[in-house]
Design goal:
Number of strands: 3
Strand content: 25-35%
Radius of gyration: 16 Å
Shape: elongated
Largest sheet: 3 strands, antiparallel
Order of helices and strands: EHEHE
Length: 80
């Protein structure tokens, strides 16, 4: 078994309303010095593949086809 960590975030320049809401909330709670906040998602995927390179390639294909909207989101795949 191989475990993958797939991380998806909005691409730079794409509006992130959740991130903006968190920025405003943190400022309202008097947290000074907080810059831009981006909200993404992390998925842990277990595969029966034992070859790390093949597992990573499969994870990247999964991200391109389903886990990320590649028009507005970028992703990384990490073998754990």
């Amino acid at each position: 078994m191989t475990r993958l960590k797939v991380t998806v975030f909005p691409k730079a320049g794409v509006l992130d309303p959740q991130g903006k809401a968190i920025e405003r909330a943190l400022a309202g709670l008097d947290f000074a010095g907080v810059g831009e906040v981006r909200v993404g998602k992390v998925m842990i995927v277990e595969l029966a593949e034992t070859d790390a390179a093949k597992a990573k390639a499969a994870g990247e294909e999964m991200a391109r086809k389903l886990l990320a909207n590649t028009v507005i989101e970028s992703f990384t795949v990490e073998v754990m």
